[in-house]
Amino acid sequence: MTPYFKKPDSSLQRAAPFIIGAGAILSIVILIYWRTLTIYYAPYSLIATPKPTPAWAATLFSLRWFVVVFSAFLFCLFFYIEVRLHTLTNIFRFLLTHRQWSVITLVALTLIGRSYFFLPGRLALGDNSNVTFNIWAMRHWIETGNAGVFWSNYALMGSPFSQFHLSLYYYFGGLIDLLIRDPYLSNKIVGMIAHSAMTYSMFIYVRHLTRSIWAGLFSAAIWSAAFFHYHHFVGVGTIVSSLVIAFLPLQLYWLETSLGRSAFTRGRAMLALTIGVQIWAHQLYGMWAVVFLLAYVVVRVVATPDRSVYNSASVKFGKTCQVWCKEIFIVTLWSGIGVLIGIYKILPVIVEGSLVGVSNLFASRFEMPIIKLQQILTFNDSFLNSDWQGGYIGPVLLIISLIGVTLIVVNRASRYSGLVAWFAITAILSFAPYYAPDLFDRLFQNIPLGEFVYAVKTPGRYLFFFEFAVTALCGVALKQLLIQPRLTWFTESFITNVTNIPNLTNKTRKIRVIRLFESFVIKARKSIQLKRPRAMRGWISTISIFGGASIMIYMIYLSLIVNSLIPDSWTSQTPKRGEALSWIKQNGDGTSRVIDVVSEWSVWQAYEVAAYTAQPGYFNHKEEAQASLQSALTLIDWLKRDLKAGQIQPATLNLAYLLDARYILGHKANIGNFAPAFQDELYSVWLAPHSIIVASDRLTPTRDSDSLDSIFADIKIDSERNVINGIPVQDSNVPPLKIDSPLSVAVIAHDLQPQYAKITFDINAEAYIQLGYSYYPYLNVLLDGKKVEAFPTSLQLIALKVPAGGHTVELVPYLSFIRIVSLLIGLAATLFSLLVAARLPKFPKLRKSE
């Protein structure tokens, strides 16, 4: 290809491909070098690095300045070759205008920008440990024939696990873990796939919006390495939401491709499917994505004056209410179909949320800290801040995006108006609670459904959507600055508008300043018309490549000086706990529960316990927090108190007995009345008396205001006969049963499966029994194969009345009517969208761009 600036030397032209290839290989080697040093020398590592540092690592570290100088030389060499020959431009033009190669190129960018996924260590901070073992749970459920998971007996004595807290992320991870057999690694793989999808979807959206592959490349390069994602997905542990973010550009891409077309196009059907996937990935973020989408399309349609958006020749500039309303209605209709695809994740939460303590979606205040601008502009105030709700975006990207907004407004580029609206709305939601709290609260507390803005707990969660708009606007700014015909210099447009005002009188035109401006504009126009070289357009590729590379390098640098990965030798967020868990697995019975008082997150991570020990635990996410969770939390608090005091109280042992907690894992301690069954230098495991079933001849009345301390002050348990002196039941007035001989119950067998439990027992008299499983309305209790009425105890456990003799109790969960209806509606909406997408023309070919 003929060079843009000057004829190249033939020798350099022949050598350029080899130089570029060798330089690319050396760049990968340099990246591996710096990533290796991160393991040992990251100044902001959350976990202490291995000591002593290996000699080879110290030798590599001593060469760091040589590597820095060589890297700078390599960057300058690439830039020189690009300026002389545009070799990189030609390479990327080929790669980005062929679909298969564009996918490979953008995935490669992601592998470079997210190369921290290849470091040894685990994603385990925050909720990532929970995510990791939800992946294990999915794999385990699939292997045991429970692929359609709606329940878990491994979680909180029976829990509607997937009914209230299930993400497609877990299913993807579970399928991958069928092959990998390592949930930590599977979590990394799914995270890398989600990040790759982010990069590619950003590219195709910005490319289509700007009609420039270089603008798309610029935004994609920025997103492929954005440190904001490291902050939240690795440091904070919200990687499960990465699937929602990955589909944000894609949903806008499908919207843009279908604007002005008929109501039934592939783009509209794919928009609905994309929305459905987002809601299944995370219902709250997915619903906010729909809200921002609707705001985007309203502004986009109303602000578009040109006919290019609409295909109908009868529409004159699209400026009629009929055209606006029709387009907005069609998009709203298909968005509604997308919501119906994910209705199973929305409607039951609203209707049945009170059963499990789902947080109120319409609160009056943010429950978590609000954020300010410094928390996105500086590294110290974002990643190093104890308030981790912010996230580093950087002043450079924010300035570029603001330049893009300015150019869009001045240039009246209405094609980008929807993106500007998205940017403005998310900026208000993110920062107004700090800078204008009273105005923000008055606004949203006085409009219908306005309090829904508080459902995300903190305005920092809106940064996910704000950061997306900032990144997309960076590509738009690049296009507007360099190759937008009307705005080679934005002063031209501004001055032209000023001097062409009809009311500007001849007398006003005589003002010296106005005459000088007019003279400047005329000369500028002539200069631009005569001297605007073809090379001006060529600069967009160079700036896109090297500007994007420079931002990537800086973002990668930030991920080099931090290390938020947990060492492989740790068990989740605690060191050297694996030996104690392995002992439980080797000596466990497979049905009794493990209660872990070591980890601060223990009650949220029992799938970790189940994965390591093959025993159930007490895991429960906040969205499934049945009232029985309070019993487990209280038991943990009592155990911590007693272990610290060196004496286990009778009430603690009684509560553990009723919750079937046999294995107590805690820090190494000497307990006077409780010898450990296992002990190493850090941890101990105690075996407590336990039973999955207890019996009594009476129900002890309690009040709603009674605490567990007051309830257990009067409880006495005979562990040899599995008898309690009274089953606590709120406001019970039932008289005690008449029993001629001492009551006793013996457990013969206990079969525990993810969605099924069976207890075989023998009881010598008619009595009330309490099972160590949580009470839930949509749980069938079968006595000897027949459904019986059960009732909750004050501990929110299952109780029922049984006659004397040998019996079998089975627990079989089922879906409520509202869930079945929601699921059927979602399936119907999905099939409809797939049929519409399948019957229409194929995906449009990539457009050759500037």
Explain how this protein is built.
The structure is a single chain. The protein is of the alpha+beta class. The chain is 54% helix and 11% strand. The chain contains 32 helices and 21 strands. A five-stranded antiparallel β-sheet has the order 14-15-21-17-18, with no helix packed on it. A four-stranded mixed β-sheet has the order 5-6-8-7, with helices on both faces. The longest helix is centred in the N-terminal third of the chain and has 32 residues, at 10-41. The chain is globular. The protein starts with 9 loop residues before the first helix and ends in a 12-residue tail after the last helix.
Q: What's the helix count?
A: 32
Radius of gyration: 32 Å
> Can you give the helix content as a percent range?
40-55%
The low-confidence runs, each spanning 5 or more residues with pLDDT under 50, are: 1-7, 306-315, 485-496, 498-510, 524-536, 846-850
What attributes does this structure have?
850 residues, alpha+beta, five-stranded antiparallel sheet, four-stranded mixed sheet, 32 helices, 21 strands, 54% helix, 11% strand
